[in-house]
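ugh finaly. both done.
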Amino acid sequence: MPRAGLNGDAVVDAALAVLDEHGVDGLTLAAVAAHTGVATPSLYKHVKGLGPLRDQVGVRVLDELGARCADAAMGRSRDDALAAVLHAYRSYAVDHPQRYAALPQRPGTDPELTRAGESVVLVFAAVLRGYGVEGADAIHVIRGLRAAAHGFVQLEIGGGFGRPEKIDDSFQALVDTLVAGLHAHIDRAGR
């Protein structure tokens, strides 16, 4: 008989707690079972295994990241919206470095994971529509924006910035560069 209150969402909640405390390598079914107070085989009533659980964790993390970015863009447009989304992206990674490290970096076959990943892309796409950047051009720009933000936060959460200058100032310089680059891209395209 399943433990009272234990369901698929509660298992994902426990997996996130384990991830936050022990990192990606510490996310095991045994650790999640210990966190929930059940034997490992009892988890199979709620998840099909570690791979599917990692996918469910990825969905939750992408949904959280997408929501944070969408909230940041709300009520803003163009440069203000883009800067807010980039800052929200970074703040999520800094606030939840282990969750960010668990993000799948390539599309999977799980439709929910695909949907959740797309939710982040759609926030960037909505901001770019305010500039008149759409279609394939928007995808190219989004890839560049995400790559820049991801690279920065990977270095930051990995301790890669050892100089005394403020990291916040460095990120703002990156945001300013990305916004200016977007304007240059738009000007070249004649929009």
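ok and the 2nd:
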Amino acid sequence: MEMLTRGIAGVVRKSGFVARNFGVSAPAAQKVTDPIQQLFLQKIQEYKSKESGGKLVDATPEVEKDLKTELDRVSKQFGGGAGVDMTKFPEFKFPAATVDPINSAN
């Protein structure tokens, strides 16, 4: 098996079909030189610094009100209500079907 792997690797090297993913192997501490990537990273870091414990970032009272209204509407539509945890996976119950006995004595 090892010889087969070496043989395939040799053929691939000779054919010039060698590719490397520099994005995966690049060190994390390397400075980003692309201005678009740098801006993207800055915005992600800025957003992370504004993180507020699972709530919307930079939300106005109007947006919060609209969110609550929509969540209440969806909760009512899909069987939620007071005391119902809508984040919990539903429990399915499949009762055993009743089968009529077969009369074999005809």
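summary for the 2nd one i guess: The chain has a mean pLDDT of 76.
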